Structure formats: structure tokens, C-alpha cells
Amino acid sequence: MARAPRPRPRPRGETPPPVTSPAGQSDLFAAAQPPARRVLTYLDIAALGLGMVSISSLHAGAGPDGYLYHVTTRDGMDTIHARGTVVFSRRAPLVLTERPGVAAWLADMVEHDAPGPDGPPDSAPGERPVIFRVRRFMIDDLLENDPDRTRRYGVPFYLLTGIARPEHEGGA
Questions:
Q1: Residue 134: how many CA atoms within 13 Å on its side-chain side?
Q2: CA distance 72 to 59
Q3: DSSP, residue by residue, the chain
Q4: 67, 50, 151, 93 alpha-carbon torsion, rounded to 10°
């Protein structure tokens, strides 16, 4: 059997001929790549301005303010304080809402976490939910809309995923 002739080696400094693709398709890897998106997995609680909120300070009918709120348990809040950070990811985002959504979230949490036929039997009676808030402007570009909770509660809910939106996209 005859062997195919070997291609002649290119002299140093000579650039290879441009690759042409079938059907006139341009080379996808030749185009400039968009800038990498910023991805975070935690935020420092001091930098966020994380603060505890008393349930009694939330007045019915109060509109949105410059903060986003999260409802958790005392154990959850103790863990956040012990770490000194709020941890989140695309797979386990932190759920946040505006001020008007806190009351609906609390009602749902109490209903589902109460001991009895609808809630877990081992939940601690008298375990009060804890609310904390963060400055919205600090995390606004890391938020995604949460359409399921927004539809369910009738107020805006967001997911803190840690993936920054490009500058030209709309705000949350």
C-alpha cells in the first residue's frame, strides 16, 4: 500500500492559511469573547449592612424601602453571624423580598413550620422567625427575579444567586 505524502513543514514565522468553514459559516472562536461575568458565593455581613429587624417594626401597608429582607430561624441567623458571611449559590440562592413581602412570608412560614398536622412534628414550639435586611444597592446586580414566589405572594421576591448581570441588562 502506498502512503500519502507528508505535508511540507512551514518555515518559522509563516502564519497558517485561514480556515474556511463549510457553507460560509464564520469561525465562532475568532470573535472577541464577552467579558466574564462576576460570580460570588458569599458576602461579608458588615459590608452588606446586614441588620436584624424587629417584627413589630414592620407596619402593614408600608411600601418598599432601600432594603431587601430575608426570613429565617434563630439557628440560621446564628450560623450567619458565626461565619460572618451570607452564603449563596446558583443552586442554593438566598431568597429576598421587599418590605411588603415580609408579612406574607412570615404567615406562610408560621403555617408550614408550626407543630401539628400540617407542620413538622419536631419543630420547636415558640421558635420565632428572625428577619434580617440588607442594603439593596449593594447586591442589586446579583439578583434575579423569583417569578414563582412573586406570583404566589403578589409582591416582588428575588433570588440572590451571586451571578452578576451585565451592565446593559435591566434592573431587578
A1: 24
A2: 19
A3: -PPPPPPPPPPTTPPPPPPPPGGGPPPTTTSPPPPPPPB-SEEEHHHHT-EEE-GGG--TT----SEEEEEE-HHHHHHHHHHTEEE--SSSPEEEE-TTHHHHHHHHHHHHHSSSSSS-TTSPTT---EEEEEEHHHHGGGEEE-HHHHHHHSS-EEEE-SBPPPTTSPP-
A4: 140
All three cell numbers of 57: 417594626
Distance of CA 52 to the CA centre of its chain: 21
- Each residue's pLDDT tens digit, 110-139: 787 655 444 444 445 556 789 999 999 888
Q: Characterize 43-59 residue by residue with b for buried, 16 or more Cβ atoms within 10 angstroms of its Cβ, and e for exposed.
A: bebeebebeebeeeeee
Q: What is the pTM of this model?
A: 0.67
pLDDT above 50: residue 32: yes
Alpha carbon distance 27, 50 (integer Å): 48
Give the amino acid at 128: R
What value, to the nearest 5°, has the Cα angle with vertex 142 and ends 105 and 158?
A: 20
Q: How far apart are CA 101 and CA 69, in angstroms?
A: 8
